[in-house]
Design a protein that fits this description.
heterodimer; A: mainly alpha; 2 domains; 74% helix; flat; B: TATA-Binding Protein; 4 domains; five-stranded antiparallel β-sheet; 10 helices; 20 strands; 37% helix
């Protein structure tokens, strides 16, 4: 089988997991939650196989110029989905809050379906600027960071739904019930949000630093205020603000959740918006 | 002015100074600055930076241009107001560290070895019980237990009581200060680079061209290098069968004091050459003058051959009358350089031929009076090199390393402390245990519960 076929099955698995996670919230059935997690895990394993296959295929297509599958928009989107699953499954292992899947897996599913339907999956050899080991370090650290922020964003959305509902219910003096009962408590969601950003922030810092080191090696400037660089710094500022907000009264809870969501929106813009809307050095589509 | 009035003024002054100090130390200022930096940074990604006035006037009206220019939006990352924001940010970092660091330093260097009952009462993790053993025996077992399960304790007797103090990862508290310091170090590195270095570029003609000065990116005066760089050759290659560039390669020689100190060093993208702190990066190329096509023209009847060199569009005479010129040429993925010729025969007839470097037999099939073979196409190039001297770059890397290490320590390690006090109660011993972690309380709670349980069973066994 080819990597393409594996990627397609992975996409279907993520779709299935997504539906199952939503059913888990709707039915409040623990078994459904467990099955959803298993399906997500199987998808992740297939995804890993697909990435490995694509790596091997690059050697079949390009001979000695084969390379890790991290070099163009298609490959980066597919890798992004993989990192989301990796971070999500690690957090699930620790917190076992199944409902979180319903808010995180969609990011991975949307990435996969977009890549499979819309993006060019051709395997091309690397242009001179990309022929560097820094490419691998830079891409891996950045995307692990992005993925942690995606998880934090999903959890923040849950937090706002949960708290919003509880605020309304408090007026009528009844605890949050119905579908939302399956959602973890606001305190747990807040904690996962913080933990995910704590994982993402040093990774983003590393991503920016490896990018700077690479730029210095290739062009002789570690920082040139290129739009991609600037946006990665904007993302860094937002999450730095989030981390400090934790210690300040009046900035916890809802405001922190909004900061996390805005942070991820900026992340997505840094990743895709800069290439699609703005122009600059970083025009390899990744 | 009355004496009390003066005192009042000084008090007011002190109030003002304190208020100002508190403002600079405050976390609210940090958050506000981070958000303002994030929002204002967007401007420079939307408005193209450092373009010429003409280019801006194509996008913006005269008035808009003046307003944006007055606000320094066209070079905003070096504008006074952005620098001021970064300065304020640094000040905030420094003052808040000065305010908080001494207390943390004291807590680590001079830990409380004799915990009071009041201190014990402040712990969320606390337990008290009595074991039916004499104090000396409990003391020895406890010291051993702490060493094995946590950290070697400091034992301090006080009257009939014995206090134990043990801690883990006290340096975890410094993580946040290392992170803050690292940002200042990065700024310092950037300033050193700006003051002591430069960025520039050179174009060197391949095949022996030399330079000993570089053009700085800002400023007009060329900067002398103190040595000479010679470009032996430049080449660009493509992936087989495609137009996708594979490599740009300059071969450079450095001559210092008449000596060839670096000889024939290939420089490609992502593999620069550094000599005496100055680094040369492969960055661009441009053709030097017109290229030359080298043909072999063979007379079909006599079999005589004649080499001819021609530039693009240059009409060349052929033996026995007639002429030809190259009117089209391109790089073909399969055949290499491919040229189209327009031939005027001695009789004045116009004919066309196609020749390619990778297909020498091509023109023989045409059946003309002459057979053209394209031997080569020689194009000389200037290689374009970025030149950078940055004495601050290693400082930046030190800062970056500290940033990552510091934030990891700050996020993932916690300073954990355990106090135990033994007090004789009749022939038995009363044990008081308290513990705290400077962060990640839930994890410490789990650890502490397990710790207490094991301690109880081991001491009394």
């Amino acid at each position: 089988m080819t990597s393409d076929q594996f990627f397609n099955i992975t996409t279907i698995a993520y779709f299935g997991a997504m539906i199952l996670f939503i059913s888990h919230i709707a039915t409040r059935s623990k078994q459904v939650g467990l099955v959803a997690t298993l399906v997500a895990f199987v998808g992740f394993v297939l995804h890993t196989v697909a990435l490995a296959l694509r790596w091997i295929e690059s050697y079949q297509v390009l001979g000695e110029h084969g390379r890790a599958p991290l070099t163009n928009l298609y490959e980066s989107v597919v890798f992004f989905a993989w990192t989301i699953l990796l971070i999500y499954l690690l957090i699930d292992l620790k917190y076992k809050q199944r409902a979180v899947g319903a808010f995180v897996i969609p990011f991975a599913f949307i990435s996969m379906i977009w890549a499979q339907w819309r993006l060019d999956s051709g395997i091309d050899p690397l242009v001179p600027a990309l022929q560097s080991n820094w490419l691998t370090y830079h891409v891996i650290t950045c995307f692990l960071g992005y993925a942690a922020f995606a998880v934090a964003c999903g959890v923040s959305i849950m937090y706002l739904i949960k708290v919003g509902k509880e605020d309304k219910n408090n007026a009528s003096d009844s605890p949050a019930g119905g579908m939302l009962a399956v959602l973890p408590s606001a305190r747990v969601l807040d904690d996962i949000n913080y933990k995910a950003i704590m994982i993402g922030f040093p990774l983003l810092s590393l991503g920016i630093i490896t990018g700077a080191a690479w730029a210095n090696y290739a062009w002789g400037t570690y920082w040139s205020w290129d739009p991609k660089e600037t946006w990665s710094l904007i993302v860094w500022f937002i999450y730095a603000a989030f981390l400090h907000a934790r210690f300040t009264r009046g900035w916890v809870g809802k405001k922190a959740a909004w900061l996390s969501i805005i942070g991820f929106a900026a992340t997505v813009f840094c990743y895709l918006g800069v290439n699609l809307v703005l122009s600059g050095l970083h025009s390899y589509g990744g | 002015m009355s004496v009390s009035g003066e005192a009042n003024l000084t008090a007011q002054k002190r109030d003002f100074t304190t208020a100002l100090w508190d403002f600079f130390c405050s976390l609210k200022l940090t958050i506000a600055l981070l958000i303002v930096l994030a929002v204002t940074s967007i401007i420079g990604t939307v408005i193209q930076q450092n373009q010429s006035q003409e280019q801006y006037l194509q996008t913006y009206s005269e008035t808009t241009y003046r307003v944006l220019d007055a606000m320094q939006f066209f070079d905003m990352y070096h504008s006074w107001w952005f620098m001021a924001l970064l300065g304020l940010f640094s000040l905030n970092l420094i003052t808040c560290s000065i305010k908080r660091f001494p207390r943390v330093w004291k807590a680590v260097r001079e830990p409380v070895l004799v915990p009071s009952d009041t201190l014990y009462r402040t712990f969320a993790n606390f337990e008290e019980h009595v074991v039916a053993l004499p104090q000396e025996q409990v003391r020895d077992r406890l010291a051993e237990f702490l060493r094995r399960n946590f950290a070697a304790p400091t034992v301090t007797p006080e009257g009939d009581r014995i206090h134990f103090f043990a801690q883990k990862a006290p340096y975890a508290r410094f993580g946040v200060y290392v992170t803050h310091l690292s940002i200042l170090i990065i700024f310092l590195g950037a300033i050193v680079g700006i003051l002591g270095g430069y960025k520039g570029w050179v174009n060197i003609l391949e095949g022996g061209g030399t330079i000993d000065k570089v053009m700085p990116r800002s400023g007009r005066e060329p900067i002398p290098l103190g040595f000479t760089v010679r470009c032996e050759s430049f080449s660009l290659s493509y992936y087989e069968g495609t137009n996708r560039p594979r490599e740009y390669r300059s071969v450079l020689t450095v001559i210092d004091n008449g000596q060839e100190v670096v000889k024939n060093r290939p420089v490609i993208v992502n593999d620069p050459l550094t000599y005496k702190g100055i680094t040369f990066y492969q960055s661009s190329y441009q053709p030097a003058g017109e290229g030359v096509f080298q043909f072999m023209v063979k007379d079909r009847q006599t079999g005589e051959t004649l080499p001819v060199s021609a530039r693009f569009e240059q009409r060349m005479a052929l033996p026995g009358g007639g002429s030809f010129r190259v009117f089209n040429a391109r790089e073909d993925p399969q055949f290499g350089i491919l040229a189209q010729l327009e031939i005027t025969t001695a009789a004045g007839e116009r004919k066309f031929a196609q020749v390619a470097k990778g297909a020498p037999e091509l023109d023989a099939l045409r059946g003309g009076e002459q057979i053209f073979t394209l031997l080569d196409f020689k194009q000389r190039y200037f290689t374009g090199l970025q030149v950078a001297k940055d004495p601050g770059v290693w400082i930046v890397w030190v800062g970056c390393t500290l940033l990552v290490v510091g934030s990891m320590v700050a996020f993932f390690l916690s300073h954990r402390r355990i106090w135990v006090t033994l007090q004789p109660v009749g022939g038995k011993t009363g044990i008081k245990i308290g513990g705290s972690a400077h962060r990640n309380q839930p994890a410490f709670e789990i650890f502490f519960d397990e710790f207490k349980k094991n301690l109880k069973s081991e001491i009394s066994s």
